[in-house]
Amino acid sequence: MKINNSNKNNYTKKTPSFKRYFDDAARKEFRRLVEHYKRVNPYLKGEDIMVMQNSIDSFNAVYNGARTINTKNVENEIYKKFHIPADFKGNKFVASMTGLTLNIFHKLHLPLPTGIMVAAERPRVAASCDTLKRNITFNENNDWSDIQYRMIIEKLENWSSTGHFLATPIHEFMHSVHLFNLHKLAAQKQQIVDSLHSKMLRDFLKMDFKTIMIDQAGSPLVNQTASRHISQKVSAYGTVKPAEMFADIGAKMITYNLDRKTILPSRNPFVFKDFTEDKYLMKIMNDVWKGNVSEYI
Ligand SMILES: [Zn+2]
Predict the structure, then answer these.
(1) Are residues 95 and 153 in the same domain?
(2) Which of 13, 78, 122, 236 is the most exposed place for a label (fewest CB within 10 A)?
(3) What residues make up the domain containing 196?
(4) 9 plus 127 within the same structural domain
(5) What pTM value is reported for the model?
């Protein structure tokens, strides 16, 4: 089973496209869309729009820089600095986004994924994180240079938690962080069972903790109270599964603390015990982090 970050590619067909670089016309179109969605999306806040505006500036700088990079050099740099194999298949924009995301997670002292690649994914799946290996795949059939436009639409529609152009890689990296913890907790549970003296009891308790915890985190979220709350405070996509809720909150927390110029976190949002600034959301987040999701699925 893979935890995916799907996107609504079909939406772009219905709307005037201002693909790729955000020129003056694209910014004007952005302002028009914001005015429209302010009327129809009650959850849209001034801060959300500000993050998108800052992201557009960052995106333009990255877009210009990505044109001239050598993806083989980026792969070598990533291996040298983080000891992670990467294969971008020449995709300059994914290489740029990955480099930026690795630097962000490194600065936040978060566990990194075990590998990054560009490969064919199912249609409508932008990227995915393998639940056992914790490596991340970006769909080679996606037009990644169009990502800023798509993320803006997804945020304005309340589908995604953030309209930042790095939302997808950060979301996938957050899956890897969550899985890193679930793998660790499963190993601890396994150790307790293995250390039991009674063979009968060991056999009785024998189960694959890792698979169970991963499956539960990836099960449909059916708790209506939690779902309504996540929809208001995070995103509609976060209501799909506990794992998606975790990744989408993480993507919001990180992108809302990124410096426009350096594209690095200006502060670490996770050092605060109640970093979501919402008691119930924090409870859900902590439960999902520890793999205690039975009340949500
Ligand atoms: Zn996801």
Answers:
(1) yes
(2) 13
(3) 180-290
(4) yes
(5) 0.91
Burial label for 264, CB within 10 Å (0-12, 13-18, 19+), is middle
Tell me how far the alpha carbon of residue 191 lies from the centroid of ligand 1, in angstroms.
Answer: 29
pLDDT tens digit string along 18-60? Answer: 457 888 988 999 999 999 999 999 999 999 999 999 999 999 9
What is the rounded radius of gyration, in angstroms, for the C-alpha atoms of the chain? 20
Indicate the residue among 125, 147, 172 that finishes a domain.
172
Which of 137, 172, 207 is the last residue before a domain boundary? Answer: 172
Ligand 1 centroid to Cα of residue 244, in Å, is 5
> For 192-236, how does the pLDDT look when each residue is reduced to its tens digit (9 = 90+)?
888 888 888 888 777 789 999 999 999 999 999 999 999 999 999
Summarised one tens digit per residue, pLDDT across range 91-145 is: 999 999 999 999 999 999 999 999 999 999 998 899 999 999 999 999 999 888 8
Say how many Å lie between the CA of residue 172 and the centre of ligand 1: 6
- Cα 232 → chain centroid: 18
Q: From ligand 1's centre to the CA of 165, what distance in Å? A: 15
CA 128–ligand 1 middle distance (angstroms): 7
Nearest residue to 75 via CA among 61, 63, 91, 59: 91
